[in-house]
Amino acid sequence: MIKETVGHTKSRMAKAFEDFRAELASVRTGRASLGLLDHLRVDYYGNLTPLNQVATLGVPEPNLLTVQPWDPSLVPVIDKAIRASDLGLNPVNDGKALRVPIPPLTEERRRELVKHVHKVLENHRTAVRNVRRDANEELKKLLREKKISEDDERRALEEIQKVTNEFMEKLEAQGKSKEGEILELR
What we know:
Blueprint: H1 2-25, E1 41-44, E2 47-50, E3 55-61, E4 64-69, H2 75-84, E5 92-93, E6 98-101, H3 107-144, H4 150-183
């Protein structure tokens, strides 16, 4: 039962970490990245569809993205979706494809993005702490029901704290890395 609890805790914390990485991928750094467009959805014949399922995306240069829709009639729809997003990008429409230049970030925008990264990081730290709390409560419940001994509970609590510390360090490292990318001047 203890191994199940610890394993379940690890998998939930891993999900929180992967969610953090995915959310950071959509934060603009001044460098072209396909992750910027991951959250965009376009109206494809009445259905909101992820952009990468209706077009070929590319990064031909460090400050340029290309979007080549499989159906050329989608070019205006994709153009509108990119302009309406909170990314602040202005695609260039050549009729068959879109070229999306990535402008350099201003100092003010960099500071805003760093604040956003810190906010996202804190949300995911809280998620990891909540997973730890749930696991600790489950262990205490097992102890109350006399399914485990006090020594087993103490060892399991230490193991869960060790796993929590490991994921907190991963989150911190990933956040620092992204902050460095944002603040890096090119």
